[in-house]
Design brief:
Helix content: over 70%
Shape: elongated
Number of strands: 0
Radius of gyration: 18 Å
Largest sheet: none
Order of helices and strands: HHHH
Length: 142
């Protein structure tokens, strides 16, 4: 059973990565604010998946390391955790397209807020899937 200390030790770096991804997105978005809605949308369609991929891989790596550490504490057999994939580019771009609709209504903050939250969610999802997929792999190997 996990202790609160172990959970917190896992959660702290994961939270930092999610906040870093969100901050990177907000910096990028802020730099684009004087562009046309089309230009902002098109740039975000490229940049947002790249941010999610970079930070999502880091989050998944932390989750894999955490999983292996917990496995080693409770099992005698070796296990190498695998990192899960980050959400598909098409899924991230669908979020961008949805949120970009608000750009054309002059609601830049709405677009920024929706996508900043989505970026953080996609990054955290990579970590969550890493834990879940390794639990399934480990159960199948018993």
């Amino acid at each position: 059973m996990l202790t609160r200390t172990e959970v917190d030790a896992y959660k702290r770096p994961l939270d930092k990565i999610c906040e870093g991804a969100k901050a990177q997105f907000i910096r990028t978005f802020t730099a684009l604010q004087n562009q046309t809605p089309e230009k902002i949308r098109d740039t975000l369609l490229e940049v947002t998946p790249a941010i999610c991929l970079a930070y999502g891989k880091a989050a998944a790596a932390i989750a894999a390391e955490f999983y292996e550490t917990q496995h080693d504490k409770h099992r005698d057999t070796p296990f190498t955790a695998q990192v899960a994939d980050v959400a598909p580019v098409e899924q991230i771009q669908a979020s961008v397209r949805y949120a970009a609709g608000f750009l054309f209504e002059g609601c830049l903050d709405t677009t920024k807020d929706i996508l900043a939250g989505a970026v953080s969610s996609y990054v955290r999802e990579a970590a969550n899937r890493t834990i879940a997929e390794n639990a399934v792999r480990e159960s199948a190997g018993r």
